[in-house]
């Protein structure tokens, strides 16, 4: 694509000019944005870039492994992979408030990242995969007298504390353009086309208290749902689809026994930038198949419901 090829060339020159021969550190979230930013910057300045992947243990099934193999295997980009799941999950114990969960994860992410940055001798620049909608949402949410709807942890925080200049090559782009740029840079389609995933990860898809056990249950249900969506050929028509594990138990019956287990909610929306969204209208047969599989295959879930709320008035995530 001509436009993205041009954009790539221009940005690479800009990055080289901005950074010179100094060092850049980039935090990978597991998502597309930070990965595309990192690959672009690596193309510009090579091994002056080090990536740090802080794994909070709240990723989707197989996601952490995918990021590591993409960076180390495919691109050979220097990558520090920190398994901080115990730290995150311990700290989340007893916490049920959505914003406090986000704030804790954001702060802990910064702490771990900062420690790792020190270990590798620091850097002059911090790279982030901030997109245009992140820029507007964080301004409009926190700029005026209006309340913060959701604090997005991938904007702000780090730069002030670490006293580093920012490299944000994707600041003018929307999600679809980032994907296009990712393809232009040779990222595998399965990675580039992946649905967006929030920084706080599964923590905000487990309303109420998060635990490793509940994260494991949710990961299994989510993987089944996504597998069925892929098999039905619907993955690319959907902006985001995911399972939510509710802090509600209901009664069910299985074989000749009574069950008393958690409810799982399924969400799927279409959108162009995440600011507004419509519900994806699955047919009943599809939903029935997913519900049956989840209940049969995932211990701890005995009821599945589908969320029919558009944004607005709902948000895409449940917290
Ligand atoms: P909402 O739920 O606000 O989501 O309608 C809009 C888009 O933003 C993502 N999202 C987040 N991303 N940190 C992130 O990095 C967050 O705290 C966060 N909350 C929501 C959400 O997945 C959707 O794509």
From TrEMBL:
Shown part of the complete sequence: 202 to 520 of 520
GO cellular component: cytosol
Keyword Isomerase: no
Residues that, per the record, bind ATP: 29-35
Naturally occurring in which organism (per UniProt): Novosphingobium marinum
Protein's recorded name: GMP synthase [glutamine-hydrolyzing]
Function per UniProt: Catalyzes the synthesis of GMP from XMP.
Enzyme superclass (EC): ligase
GO molecular function: ATP binding; GMP synthase activity
Every GMPS ATP-PPase domain range: 2-194
């Amino acid at each position: 694509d001509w436009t993205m090829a041009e954009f790539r060339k221009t940005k690479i020159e800009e990055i080289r000019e901005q950074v010179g021969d100094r060092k850049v550190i980039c935090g990978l979230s597991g998502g597309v944005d930070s990965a595309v930013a990192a690959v672009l910057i690596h193309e510009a300045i090579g091994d002056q870039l080090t990536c740090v992947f802080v794994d909070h243990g709240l990723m989707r099934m197989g996601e952490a492994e995918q990021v590591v193999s993409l960076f180390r295997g495919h691109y050979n980009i220097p990558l520090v992979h920190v398994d901080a799941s115990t730290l995150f999950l311990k700290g989340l114990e007893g916490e049920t408030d959505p914003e406090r969960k986000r704030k804790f994860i954001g702060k802990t992410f910064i702490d771990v990242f900062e420690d790792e940055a020190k270990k590798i001798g620091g850097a002059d620049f911090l790279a982030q995969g901030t997109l245009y909608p992140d820029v507007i949402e964080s301004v409009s949410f926190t700029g005026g007298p209006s309340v913060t709807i959701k604090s997005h942890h991938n904007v702000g925080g780090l730069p002030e504390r670490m006293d580093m200049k920012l490299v944000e090559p994707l600041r003018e782009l929307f999600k679809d353009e980032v994907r296009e740029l990712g393809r232009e840079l040779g990222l595998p389609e399965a990675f580039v086309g992946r649905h967006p995933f929030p920084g706080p990860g599964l923590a905000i898809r487990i309303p109420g208290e998060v635990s490793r056990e509940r994260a494991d249950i949710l990961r299994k249900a989510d993987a089944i749902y996504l597998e069925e969506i892929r098999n039905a050929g619907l993955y690319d028509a959907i902006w985001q689809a995911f399972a939510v594990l509710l802090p509600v138990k209901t009664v069910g019956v299985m074989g000749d026994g009574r069950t008393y287990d958690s409810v799982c909610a399924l969400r799927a929306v279409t959108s162009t930038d995440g600011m507004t969204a419509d519900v994806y209208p699955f047919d009943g047969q599809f939903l029935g198949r997913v519900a049956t599989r989840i209940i049969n295959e995932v211990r701890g879930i005995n009821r599945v419901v589908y969320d029919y709320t558009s944004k607005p008035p709902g948000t895409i995530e449940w917290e």
